[in-house]
Design goal:
single chain, alpha+beta, SH3 type barrels
Length: 191
């Protein structure tokens, strides 16, 4: 290949504007992503979202927005993105199928952290186990039993199954105990 036959001005005129627009798209896009992630963080702070969930949501939204900026910059360069996006979607589907149980626990953890059916310190009965909630993680909830055992419950079934939270209402006596106390009071001999 003879280098002297290459027309550099033609190459620069053809690809120069695309490269400049792609670099500008990348710079401006990443700047906008930074602003959007800050807005998302502030919105999550105002919504009083759990700190573990807040960090995860902010980071995942930042990653997704950056991927979108990079794909846009590549398409400005003239790279055909249809096949790339199809491969990305297929890989995402395969990973989702492989991690379906883990994703169910993750989704359950998000639901628990958003809707707060219980909080740390509450005494709950769920999935055949009872104990005080020691920690709520994104994939698991950790209980401590009265006899000092640690129980780790996956959040997927915990968020979709039946659960009793003994700490939400003020303590009440059962109807049976109340009737028994009334009977005892009425049957006491008078002195």
């Amino acid at each position: 290949m003879d280098i002297s036959n290459i027309d550099l001005t033609g190459i620069v005129m053809t690809y120069g504007p695309r490269i400049i627009f792609a670099i500008l798209t990348l710079i401006i896009g990443l700047w906008i992503v930074k602003i959007l992630v800050n807005v998302i963080n502030k919105g999550l702070d105002k919504g009083e979202v759990d700190s573990a969930l807040k960090g995860f949501l902010a980071s995942i939204s930042g990653v997704l927005l950056k991927v979108l900026v990079y794909i846009t910059a590549l398409s400005v360069l003239g790279v055909e993105m249809t096949s790339f996006v199809a491969i990305l979607a297929a890989a995402g589907f395969a990973i989702g199928m492989a991690l379906s149980g883990t994703l169910q626990n993750f989704a359950g953890g998000v639901m628990i952290l958003l809707f707060k059916p219980f909080k740390i310190g509450d005494y709950i009965d769920a999935q055949g186990h009872s104990g005080s909630v020691k920690e709520i993680q994104i994939f698991n909830t950790i209980l401590t039993t009265p006899d000092n055992k640690t129980i780790i419950l996956p959040n997927g079934p915990l968020s979709t199954g039946a659960m009793v939270n003994y700490s939400t209402e003020p303590r009440r006596e059962s109807t049976g105990q109340l009737v028994s106390d009334m009977v005892m009071m009425w049957t006491k001999p008078i002195r």
